[in-house]
Amino acid sequence: MNFEEFWALFVVVGLLLIDLAIRVVAIIVVPRNRKPTAGMAWLLAIFFIPYFGVLFFLLIGNPKLPRHRRRKQAEVDRAILEATHGVERVSDTRSWPSWFEGIVQMNRNLGSMPLVGSNSAQLIGEYQDSLDQMAAAIRDAKAYVHVEFYIFALDKTTAPFFDAIGEAAARGVTVRVLLDHIASMRVRGYKQTLRRLTEMGVQWHLMLPVQPFKGKYQRPDLRNHRKILVVDGEVAFMGSQNIIDRGYNKRSNEKRGLKWKELVARVEGPIVSGLDAIFSSDWYLETGEVIVTEIPAFDQPGEEQNLDCQLVPSGPGFRNENNLKLFLSLLYAAKERIIITSPYFVPDESMLYAISGATQRGVHVELFVSEIGDQALVYHAQRSYYEALLRTGVKIYLYKAPYILHSKHFSIDHDVAVIGSSNMDIRSFELNAEISLLVRGASFVRDMREIEAGYRRDSRELTLEEWKQQPLRSTVLDNLARLTSALQ
After folding, report:
1. For labelling alongside 84, which of 111, 158, 241, 465 has CA 20 to 30 A away?
2. For residues 60 and 210, what is the distance between their CA atoms, to the nearest angstrom?
């Protein structure tokens, strides 16, 4: 054997040993503290494409924020628990469903926020109307404006919103803006947006910045997905809508004529201070600055809008999947009706069991999703669950193109609902910072039922018979996308 042959053999044996070592180490390391489905998906990736699989795992394999961020989040949670001890002012607990108190306590333990009563809320289902109402509230600001959005972009549609915060800053109102770094950076006009904020004298910071040369780095797809506006601690807006044109300023969306359909809640009452606390927490996490604001006094609202509300923050800074546990608890608690609206519905096994269990005990379950998708992988992963859901008796409504139904809400029975930024997918459960609002109040659920009825009129029902006619290529794409969705 000459030197060249020996060297070639040495390289082959070395690569085989490295490959074997990767597989052995992966079996030990990957499944640790990870869901079985996610662990299996990662192992499959590493076993089939070992070198790329390992590189991919090193880049995005850790679904939690850096340790120092989690310590700061725990510090914030303790401060909120101490500051809100005994603040609960709620309606007559004798009218609560028997299960409601336990869910409230779970949310308090997981996310620190209390349930507070004497709130009012208005649902806004028109895209331009929500922007107009937010701008109008900012124009009335006297002390401060807190703005926090996943995507925050200056364009023709959002120009009046930017004008409003500029006018507020010019008259001495403190304006603070938080925008997600990666999400906002990916849209057209990002640098123009930041330049405009600076020119207006607005205090702004990027959320979860990926700037390794500045010492700021975490897994790139761990994002802050919240959408919050608070004005003077008296009125707040939250829901699914970002501050951007409803076509998201993407040429591909413009070619397809896509338009986003959203739902935003305008709230007043003590719960506004809770939303302000969430904003202040995120501001502190990004800047180290503690915001001190005066909590305003609130009048008792009318009986029709005397809502009990509780905020449930969630995300990679928390030890638990707070939003998933809230959703599961409500699914198991429902006695008559469950209506889910989610643009990206990619449930895990626990949610599938909860939904199938609900239909099997006679609960009427409806799911509203878009007929078309804007993100191919998520769209196909979502479709992979349709047959199982239809077979369990879930009614699936497809909101008609060219609209993307981006609203995120969930109602059960007659007096409990959730609205917020959270999708019902693995990304929102584990990787995104989200905010959900649990509301108990028959008037609020009636308003949400009207919104849902409008969706139903603008949708078509998907039947099992229709679904069985899907071509094989669609089934293959759906199932492949489903496998990738578990790589968390």
Report:
1. 241
2. 13
